[in-house]
Design goal:
2 domains, binds iron/sulfur cluster, about 20% strand, two-stranded antiparallel sheet, single chain, about 240 residues
Amino acid sequence: MAWSRLGDVTAEQFRGVAAISREFGAEVRITNRQNFILRGLSEDQLIELYPRLLAIGMAEPGAELSRDVVACPGADTCNLAVTQSRGLASAIGEALEAAGLAEVEGVRTNISGCTNSCGQHHIADIGFFGAERRAHGRSAPGYQMLLGGYVGQEQIEFAKTALRVPAKAAPEATVRVVRRFSEERELGEQFQQWLERSGGAKGVAVWLKDLDVFPTPEENEDFYVDFGETGPYEKELGESECAV
Ligand code: SF4
């Protein structure tokens, strides 16, 4: 599997993947985690494949690890977005790297910039959707955090609401959950099994409650500015351009 950070793929990378597909006789599929699967390869081909992926910047381990955060386009390009979901995805990836937790297996984070769930937050282990918050008389970017969603072999479980957090506290909330999961999980235990024996989404929410605090704008203006923005947060909705 070849990882593409935030699902961003350049024309050069697409050409590189197409050339690999032709030359190695591999079938290429795009996954719902915004990565590429190369199918039909033999083990012998992997030694040659690695430098080819390295040359186009797609050899870093990431697919299906905790750094593999998925986000919808959010306020970068979507008229319905309440928040900068891609900016949060980037910040979560960086926070996990800094905490040494970017390569934890078995935990998937998905983010949507509004309730519509193009980022599939409702079927993620850790999900977020953007929501406007009000604090100290100001608008601020925030997120509803959800936990425990998954698509199983025979059933789908929608994630349960945990708590709302300021956008700028969402990376810390994710780091705490990933750290606790990686420290407490038993051999072969899935995220939802760990969550269940840890008090479920509401139980974990109690433990994260101290993060749902807005400092005053004088104390920390950053809480009133969304990721990737330079000015104060303002909710601006336009006409939908997609199927939503
Ligand atoms: S409509 Fe879809 S793409 Fe746009 S912000 Fe909402 S979830 Fe994201």
